[in-house]
Specification:
312 residues; mainly alpha; Lysozyme; 3 domains; 11 helices; 4 strands
Length: 312
């Protein structure tokens, strides 16, 4: 009796396994032939065929402020290669830089021209702050041109609790021009002047003395200063030909300059929010247009004239 039951159990198990195998085969067939599965497989195949990460060609010639970049040196080529790759494939950041540049370049360019500085220095401002008006570095450098407090005062900017002209785009651009022209007079090249903006003239002097060399591309600096000019070159290259590097923006994608009119203030202001309402804007709009106004009021005991931008 036990033997007979065993035979029955074996037969039942065998039938169950057969049914399971048939079910699996049917499911696999249905899945492989379903429209959804076929579409997924087609998409995967298309992705594999179209998606790729590519090395980028190095231009045959490069210059910064009219000064030739010695791309024949392997370490110069590789330094530029690093920065062009980083800035091309960090797409979100570079897209934002392109968008913001459309707003701020038209303000900076005429000042550079008026101050007899090469136009390429607008890219220096861009890599310094990303054109974020309220940018502050860990060391305390502030504004689009990233001035330290003492340096800002040395080059004619007012820095106090109520007014901080490091945040004043036009005035800080003029101050930066003064610094860069002084560095150019000292070193004789715009490239070293740019490096001095990062390392300070004292830092450049020290390395020139140690290394007995006065060419930026032949000097060994710390990581930040070694990359500095190459970052400027990479951003210049991309913004000069964005489509070439895969950045496609329509005119409406770009951040436009904000129209405004000027109101002169030569007295104290008890409350900037009330001042804003008087001119039919809100406090946020007023401060966004004038980030150099640091407090909610202005004492102005000296009766100094300040020119306030009011967005239209």
């Amino acid at each position: 009796m036990k033997h007979k039951n065993s035979k029955i159990n074996v037969k039942i198990l065998s039938i169950s396994i057969s049914i399971l195998l048939i079910t699996i085969v049917i499911n696999l067939f249905v899945r492989s032939s379903s429209p959804v599965t076929l579409q997924i497989e087609e998409n995967e195949k298309s992705f594999e065929q179209s998606y790729g990460i590519f090395a980028l060609p190095i231009p045959k010639e490069l210059d910064f402020a009219g000064e030739v970049v010695p791309l024949n040196k392997f370490y110069v080529r590789e330094s530029f290669d690093r920065e062009i790759l980083v800035n091309t494939y960090w797409q979100s950041q570079t897209l934002l830089l392109i968008k913001r540049a459309n707003r701020y370049f038209p303000i900076i360019e005429p000042i550079l021209k008026e101050q007899n500085l090469p136009d390429d220095f607008k890219y220096l401002a861009l890599i310094e702050s990303g054109f974020l008006q309220r940018a502050v570095s860990p060391s305390g450098a502030t504004g689009i041109w990233q001035f330290m407090k003492d340096t800002a005062k040395e080059y004619g900017l007012e820095v106090s609790n109520e007014i901080d002209e490091r945040y004043h785009l036009e005035k800080s651009t003029v101050a930066a021009c003064k610094y860069l022209k002084k560095a150019y007079q000292k070193y004789g090249t715009w490239t070293l002047a740019a490096a001095a903006y990062n390392a300070g003239m004292g830092g450049i002097d020290k390395q020139i003395s140690i290394q007995k060399e006065n060419n930026y591309y032949n000097l060994l600096f710390n990581e930040e200063t070694s990359r500095y000019v190459f970052r400027i070159l990479a951003i210049k290259q991309i913004l000069s030909s964005p489509e070439k590097y895969g950045f496609h923006l329509k005119k409406e994608d770009l951040y436009q300059p904000i129209p405004y009119y000027i109101v002169e203030v030569s007295d104290s202001i008890n409350n900037w929010a009330e001042f804003a309402k008087t001119h039919k804007v809100n406090y946020k709009e007023l401060k966004d247009m004038n980030p150099w106004l640091r407090e909610t009021s202005l004492t102005n005991k000296a009766k100094k004239s300040y020119f306030i931008k009011i967005p239209k």
